[in-house]
Amino acid sequence: MITTLPKVELHLHIEGTLEPELIMQLAERNGIRLPYADLDDLRRQYEFTDLQSFLNLYYANLDVLVTEQDFSDLTRAYLKRAQAAGVRHAEIFMDPQAHTSRGIALATCVNGVSQALADSVTEFGISTSLIVTFLRDRPAAEALEVLTELISLDAPIIGIGLDSAEVGHPPIDFVEVFALARAHGLECVAHAGEEGPPEYVWQALDLLKVSRIDHGIRSLEDDALVDYLVQNEIPLTVCPFSNVRLRVVDRLEDHPLPAMLARGLLVTINSDDPAYFGSYLDDNFRGLQQTFGLDAPAMAALSRNAVQAAFLADAERAPLL
Ligand code: ES4
Ligand code: ZN
Questions:
Q1: What total number of domains does the chain contain?
Q2: 255 occurs within a structural domain
Q3: Could you tell me if the CB of 13 is within 6 A of ligand 1?
Q4: CATH code of residue 302
Q5: Where is substrate annotated to bind (predicted)?
Q6: Rounded to 5, what percent of the chain is helix, strand, coil?
Q7: In a domain, 320, yes or no
């Protein structure tokens, strides 16, 4: 049973869990006028041609998130749904610049999300950690400023990542940001090889010294890169339905997941932006099971990969297995 398989989620943007119903509720609560006639009109916008077409809607909808309460309500709603999906541990991304750039204080978004996370074990039986992701299509100097402020606030984060529009925004631009994070003992991950070329995956590894790659599916185009990822057991946080909905692959049947597993890559399954792609972690597992005929041991192996790839102490892994 998919829902009873203990699951670990390593690639989940909290902003990507903002469901249309909650958008309407928060707009009402905060007196914000939305450019949609009603809920159905909003739902009709969820048709994407590529990463950028999705990001346009994702960023626009964030206008409804204003107060700490909004951020903690958003986070609690995700945790409740994740509990139903059988998630036991989640390492959650948030995009501070998507909020500070529209005048929301850094402390408002960080505190709102982390307050909900602080109750997650007792309320939902899900352990969590928070990773802040920097927007690669904004200046690296801004990312550096935000990271510096997060460090001075002693924000409860375990690591940093890199996301948003990939092509034309290579990892090399963010070397200084990641060096600062590493100097402060933060874990490092980056989106790479989603729409961008294998070269960006190499840069994330060599220059940013990340220990996980988010997506990474285009790594398959470079045999030497695949060998490196396999030999060094670098996890890839793959998001099957995200890739379909953003047209990185045409259909789930065309997804390279089976090829990735056959090459011996340390693949994990994740939901990315479930409210936008219509699929939480259980839905992603179910889709793979139905499409590729994965049996129970194969599904359990994918879950174990995520336990191995998580930023946890060994004693914390045991209860998840
Ligand atoms: C994202 Cl699917 C994806 N790719 C890059 N950046 C993102 N931010 C939120 N979802
Ligand atoms: Zn992502």
A1: 1
A2: yes
A3: yes
A4: 3.20.20.140
A5: 273
A6: 55, 15, 30
A7: no
163 belongs to an annotated ligand binding site: no
Domain that holds residue 179: 2-311
Q: Whose CA is nearest to atom 1 of ligand 1?
A: 164
Distance from CA of residue 246 to its chain's centroid? 15
Q: How far is the CA of 61 from the centre of ligand 1 (A)?
A: 14
Provide the token pair at 192.
Answer: 């790479």
Looking at the CA of residue 15, tell me the nearest atom of ligand 1. Answer: 9
**What is the ipTM, given to two decimal places?**
0.98
Domain membership flag for residue 291: yes
Instruction: Locate 178 and state its tokens.
Output: 């990641």
